[in-house]
Design brief:
Helix content: 40-55%
Shape: elongated
Number of strands: 0
Number of helices: 3
Radius of gyration: 34 Å
């Protein structure tokens, strides 16, 4: 269920970004008032603006609802990293270094004549 909601969340987010980028700004209607052929479009002269605005509103609402649902699901999951709270477990033993682990500078050479 969680994975399906994540996929839907990503699809809604990408669609929301796309619909926001497709929309025109407030000053973009100046060309339509001078006869730039705005009435020959698929949605008419103002139909695309209403369609894009309504679609963006629906996608934004769906996006926020999915955010809240996914946040609620994630908050109820138990995390694996909380095992450090158990202080009754024995500590790991530390081993002393072996004699051959001593650095070479501290050893005296035995086969070099003095």
């Amino acid at each position: 269920m969680f994975e399906v909601l994540i996929v839907v969340y990503i699809i809604v987010a990408v669609a929301l970004i796309g619909f926001i980028l497709i929309q025109q700004g407030k000053g973009a209607d100046m060309g339509a008032s001078f006869g730039s052929g705005g009435s020959g479009t698929v949605f008419g002269s103002s139909g695309a603006g209403n369609f894009l605005t309504k679609t963006t509103t629906v996608l934004a609402t769906l996006f926020f609802v999915l955010c809240l649902v996914l946040g609620g699901i994630t908050a109820k999951q138990k995390h694996e990293g909380e095992s450090w709270n158990d202080l009754e477990a024995p500590a790991a033993e530390t081993l002393a270094p072996a004699a051959e682990d001593v650095p070479a500078a501290d050893q005296t050479p035995t086969d070099v004549p003095q």
